[in-house]
Fold these 3 entries.
Entry 1:
Amino acid sequence: MKRKQLAPHIHADQPAAERYIYVLLALLPAFLGAVFYYGIRVAILAAVSMSCFFFSDFLISKHMYPDHAFHVDYSSLVSGLLLVLMIPASASVWTVILAALFGSVLVKQAFGGAGANIFNPALASRAFLEFAFPVQMSAKEAPFQGTWHLQSLFTGEPAASAAGETTVGWMNILSGRLPGMCGVTVMVLILIGMVVLIERRIFRFEAPLAYILALVFGYVPFYWDALRFDAFFAWIACGGLILVAVFMLNDCTTLPLDPKGRFIFGFGAGILTLILYRFANSTYAMVFPVLMMNMTTPIFDHYLRPRAFSRTSWFREVQK
């Protein structure tokens, strides 16, 4: 008998909890790389974030939806870990707690819980921090500077300035030894996580492929007046774009169901990324394009849905 579970996993042979366990396993290399470069405080922030997400989801589900049993699908742990990988290692515990509560209460549970949220909870939490704590979020701590710097866990003061500590060279780009957020610079480790997702057959190529194509082919016309490909690869390494492509653009809850819709979704997110990076800043380009495209997912699901056999247009049949 097939186990009953929530959308969007209701028709999947793989249980939702098992799927998210594999996503956590895929995130493990990037997390270990973040701990190696930025210290034990990354592990502490991750533990706080994941705990807040999980217990907030559990308590709200128990009291707001008493008729529905709480499904331990580990999606809250994935959101908590992704949030920490997208913030500077010098962030304070308080900011992480507030962001986790924002993502759990207002972004996820307010819409009905797992499978019903419109926006990606981790990205929405990161967007909240960008507006609420812009100074902390703009800090770029150099690798190996704050390994045991724990006294600022509650104040959010950087252990050392990133200026002049690390040069942006090809070896540093490939290894991830760059100033920036916790887990976005370790591209090789993120790609190892992608291999895990592909091996477990939970990686869908349409949105990430369209996203990367838009970035690669759109970079030339957007930066024709100042074309530098070393700057392009440094931006890819430091801007969190690989993390977004591999994990945020594989969120089956907030992406369109149809492959054509996912391709358009990813391409639109890539174009918005180029626009925001050119006219705003790199953090906006990481966070907001996917959130903006999340709002279009219901439209894609309405007009781009696999038609039933012998039906030319499913929604016209429904309207009759």
Entry 2:
Amino acid sequence: MKGVDYKIIGADGREYMAATLDELRAWIVDGRVGPGTLVWSGEEERWQPASAWPELRWDLPSAPPVIPVVSKPEPRFHDAEFPIRAAAYILDVFIVAALFSLITMPWAEYYRELQEAALKESAKAAPDIQVLLRFYSLFLSTFLPLRLAYFVGFHAGLGATPGKLLFGLRVVRVDGVPLTFPRALARFLAELLSIAAMGIGYLVAPLHPERRALHDLIAGTRVIRKPVDEAVARDEA
């Protein structure tokens, strides 16, 4: 290949002349020419990558092996059916009621008497508002914080309440990402609307294609069964 002129297209896009093959090989050592650098040979009068020229193939550095990147598949999940959601919710209601009885045990007698008085006043045409306010103030100041701590804490911490965990359910965002504390709190507040609407918000779930209740639609959440991948792994174990 003595006397053959070579040209290259540099990294800056400009054309450079190499008078001899030895000079071109020196450029390879300096890193100016790589396997993909376009090289023109005066003998054949054409351009092609440096790795395609036989006289340069053994001078070029070998390309590092390409390691394929295998992405982990998205976990597949199924939206929870309404009967399973209802069963899990009923269990959670019993657990919250038991915790409420335990917390209010020190003033259980006073609470029972106040509750009976409130029921009697409610039946009257002109009830005593003060009695009703005392009862509901005591009830809401204990029951609501307990319910908030229970549902928000478990949904943000474990992704599910004990009732949902028992039935293999999880509460996630619509894209399958676990709930953060703010999202779990937003869902709790939205669920109060479902309750205030005489429970109609819950009845949206069996009609929705993704089994989402009213509070799920407001908070951007969904209740799912465990991902299929998790279930398969558990069965294989």
Entry 3:
Amino acid sequence: MMDKKITILHANDIHGQLNFTVNHDMEVMGGISLLSGYLKKTRAEGPTFFGICGDVLQEDVLGSDYKGTNTVEMINYMNPNCLSLGNHELDYGLAHLLIFKECVSAPILCANMVVSNLRQDLFRSSIVCELGGVRMLLIGVIPQAFFNKILSDQFCRSMLDYKDTYDAVREEIAKHKDEQIDLVVLMSHYGIEGDRILAQNMPKDLHVDLILGGHTHINMDEPEVINGIPVVQSSYGTTHIGRFDVTVDAEKGGIKEWKWQRVPLTEETSEFDLGVDDLADRVTFHKKKKRDNAKLCEFAGVFEHKSRLYETDLGNLVADAFAESYPVDFVILQSGSIRRKECGPVVTQKDLNELYPYDDKFVEIDMTGREIKEAFHYLFCLKPDGSVMNGTFLYSKGFRLVADGTDCWQQGCSVLGLSLNGKDFEDDKIYRVGMTRNCASNAMRYFSMDLGEERQRVLSLSTFHDLAKWCLSQAGTIPAPEKGRFELLNFEG
């Protein structure tokens, strides 16, 4: 019997990025048109699988305005074999996600969500895809932290359970044990650290062949082979696509040979697909330019957000805007919510959409000084999985945090100072802490602390609306915000 050959193409973290960019060498990079063109070319060459491993939605100005629905026609046009969920598919709640699921023609996979009383999967857990005589079992998986995002809704808490990934994989493989499966592929959105752990602890008897991942936005030059399992991501947006050329053992199944590359999507590797261009143009230019270009405010210069790990002018400014808009003592803001590396001096509606595309509720939570100290000590401690900071944050004016990162990967970072307006936090004093609902929902992961809805007072239903209102209310030029809120000493990342 002759061995079978197929091509596996995978993307992740597209985030609604439809348009190409131009680099310093004036080379066109990425965009939905070149991605679709590469798919057409590869499919014409032989049996080809294409899957997207989470985060189709969110981030850019268009994804935020349309809550991701602007990408549905493009996804359907490219006709992927399947998609798996990412954390941003859960941004708008379960109702939005289920509508999105019904509008996308490809199966959306997640083996971790179970309707409690029915013991029934909420999404398709897996599909079997046959290409070129090769039968592939695709299983979609997410970590529990992402599942927890939808549990702020009381109905979801009462109706849904999270199924352990290893249990889910074992169940899906058992369902298809009589179907002569050649390859078992996980479509994961755990991030590279999570995928490493998944692969390292994967029982040998499950015979998982590949882990196609997402979430971390890393540029991999080659797969990491862990416990015999290649682990890969394709990058971020639409600038690259991951490609496996696989030879499958005709007698035993499983991978006999493989080659992987992260293919740059340029005019050298692909051709523009005019059909998808028409769809992208219709979405891109639907918005009125007049509204996009309306001036909201003016900064004293170009403010930057070059790193999520350290405080930045843009991050401090948004945190201060929220602190001035709401009756709280200080604000904790997720660094990842700031999505532009620089902005200003003139700030338009479009600029603000791109800078802060996450519209969320804003909540106030009463916390004792002791709780605040415990939260930050946990944030920087060494976790059982070897990680240190499982979240990065920005803070409003008056807050000050100093941490020492000496030998952090062996013993964790130590908090040297924690104060508000020059005074140490008092253990028994109550402080009003402001944060987005998303941040509060993830507090167990960040701070090992339950900040459930019973502790939250909703101050606003729209952080983006309030941020835009704050910008409009500023008279004159907005100066760069004060620095010195977070200092990380002796840290080597």
